[in-house]
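lol ok so funny story. i was supposed to be doing the assay writeup but got distracted and ended up predicting the structure for this chain instead. priorities right. anyway since i did it might as well share w the group, maybe its usefull for someone
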Amino acid sequence: MARRCALRLQPGTMAVAVVMLAALSCAAAARAVPPRKVTVHYDISYNGATIAEGSETLEHDGLTYRLYSETRGKGVLAVLYRGAIKRTSKGTILATGLRPLEFSDQRGERAPETARFDWSNRTVLQERNNGHRQTVAAENDMQDRLSFLWSFSFGAPQGREISATVVDGRGTTRYRYEIAGKETLKTPAGSFETLRLVKQRDAGDVRGTEIWLATAHDFIPVRLLVIEKDGTRMDTVLTRIGS
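and the output, tada:
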């Protein structure tokens, strides 16, 4: 249920300040944020055959957040590859979305690869599991591989194009997505009204990517489709929301 805000003028010299404070309070109340904890489950298919399953959990207190992702093989892949891919991201919440502080990516028993953000000095320290370290400049719209998609839950997509630099322990990638419009998407978790984003390809980029965000569910990602140059399709689709 939406919270109703009423502005009431007060006599005297404090009237303007009172009105401004009330307006700010109303704006904060109207700004939608996802539940303090939400878990989404996905199936991942390769050319139509399910090969893995994963889950992502968001926890936040309105000021800070933590994301945890785990992906494991399913079917034949579960026999061939017994390890899991585990990713974490934590940071702060801004009016425009998420600002990561630390990202970790661990595959199987290998040491994790990390990216640590120092926003006061505008740098990001990247470290691979072989011990190689490098420092790159931090950009205002920089995200990590987990926070990028979940940031829309705290700052809905605006305009016709979205751009961001995505970083992990190995490097940085610049992305541009066009907002392609609304679309009803059927998934194993049900039908969702979504906003579809299509990656804009730069010269030499042969990989196509499309993202669907659930507009009535805090813009959580419900589908991610990657199409390689040879037509290979890697499709990640929501199967369940909950614990």
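Helices lie at 15-30, 76-80, 147-150. Residues 1-31 have pLDDT under 50 and may be disordered.
back to the writeup now i swear
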